Amino acid sequence: MTALLLALAAGAVVGLALGGLGGGGSMLAVPALVYLLGFSPALATAAALVIVAATSPTGLLAHARAGRVRWRAGALFAAAGLPAATAAGVLSAHLPGALLTGAFAVLAGLAAWRMLVPPKAAPQERSAAGWGRSTATGAGLGAVTGLLGVGGGFLAVPALVSVLAFTMAEAVGTSLLVITANALAALLPRLGATGAIDWAVAAPFTGAAILGAWDGKRLADRLSGRTLQRAFAFALLGVAALMLVTALR
User: Fold this and answer.
1) 3-state secondary structure of 147
2) What separation in angstroms does the CA of 12 have from each of 25, 57, 208?
3) What are the Cα distances from residue 107, in Å, to 9, 98, 110?
4) Sign of the C-alpha dihedral, residues 84, 85, 91, 97?
5) CA distances to 81, 159, 223 from 183, in Å
6) What is the pLDDT of residues 112-138, one digit of tens each?
7) What average pLDDT does the chain have?
8) For helices 2-21 and 168-187, what crossing angle results, to 10°?
9) Which burial class, exposed, middle or buried, applies to 198 when counting CB atoms under 10 A from its CB (0-12, 13-18, 19+)?
10) Between residues 59 and 80, which one has the greater pLDDT?
């Protein structure tokens, strides 16, 4: 019963992050599965990708109804990352865990810094990136997603804002499309290689996350884009610090 309650509570928080911030689901799900629910790191990573891949479409639908999803640019961005996510997922099995954890911490910290530091030019003065730049950025994000076993929202949102000149609201909504595709691609190399997922825990976790994603979208409705940016950045800084301490132990 305790495990079920913890799974429901943690799932709700993950859903709020995905629906409201367009990312952070795996970064919250993996620690919850490991430290609260007793999953091994490998199983937690695989389960988190399943949870995020199942939950992200719920938030995506909610944001799409509000007109916050740029489908064409988002689809190109996501498609560019699929081969890289799959290849990096295979490579990750051969790299030390401490190295991957440290890399995760550094990238999360850099993403937070980019979200906190005001852009040199106002969004209306910048033009969106062309197809080539969008493709290259999407491929890079897919590689990071596959390597670190996360959905990629913690990098997708700042990339869409800073590189492709999306508004924060558009970045949050569109990132859920990218997260869904990348999470599925990163999950494929891990299927059958990490053991059996405990669905008695993972299923209620996922259900609570799906419901939480709807509430996350409502949260996004009430907060300004800059407020969401700051909240997302500070959350990333906390995760980066935690992961860096873990890597240095």
Assistant:
1) helix
2) 10, 15, 5
3) 27, 14, 5
4) positive
5) 10, 17, 27
6) 787 677 655 444 444 445 667 778 888
7) 77
8) 130
9) middle
10) 80
